Description:
The protein is α+β, with helices and mostly antiparallel strands. The protein contains 6 helices and 10 strands. Helix content is 22%, strand content 22%.
Amino acid sequence: xxxxxxxxxxxLMLQSALAGAVIRHSDFRVPSLATADLxxxxxxxxxxxxxxxxxxxxxxxxxxxxxxxxxxxxDGSWRIYSPGEAWRGRPAHLIRVVLRTxxxxxxxxxxxxxxxxxxxxxxxxxxxLGPDLLGPADQPGxxxxxxxxxxxxxxxxxxxxEALLDQRNLAGIGNLYKAEVLFLRGIQPWTPVGxxxxxxxxxDLAHRLLVANRGRWxxxxxxxxxxxxxxxxxxxxxxxxRRCGTLVKRETQGDRxxxxxxxxxxxxx
Length: 269
Ligand SMILES: [Zn+2]
């Protein structure tokens, strides 16, 4: 599940593979960019902002700065191949864009919200986001715990689970970290934000979990990277809670699935 850490890793991968290189051929397979041509454009770098990817480019000749924006949502991914290497892993019909340089082929599968905008207009795509859990604190939209808490507090009637997923409050948390943070803090997912005593510690934990997981592709909140031991409640409905043995529950909440332990995360009174 692509959450902020996965997107951050993807940005680093694209940065390592493409930064400084000139695109020799581009192939967009989405109607809105069918005529876009990035050949001879140079890749300046790639950054993430919450769950959004920003591939920054400089145009040939005029040095125009443009940004190729993409969002992975539930199932998107970028893969890097060598020229001539077989493109394994994902079906070809999911390909949305192919960028070729002299040494690298970058293929974007099932990307969402693919858009090409002037770099100085990036904010029109990501300006609505709350502080980015993995964003440098000294950059626009970067991590600012106090601001994240302030935004959460402004919605006292929202459930804490939905408020944590709302990228306008803080950017980068997906369904897995939402479930795990609430378990670790003993908070029932339907608790109104206004009834959560220590929002600072919820936000602080979310930040620490994402930071701990960036740089690797396995998402773990338990301290164990062993298969089947990585998480406390996410995806574990019907299995015993690792702390108390009570069966983990799952239920639809809004348009997402929530997992929690009814014993460790009692309803607030
Ligand atoms: Zn439990």
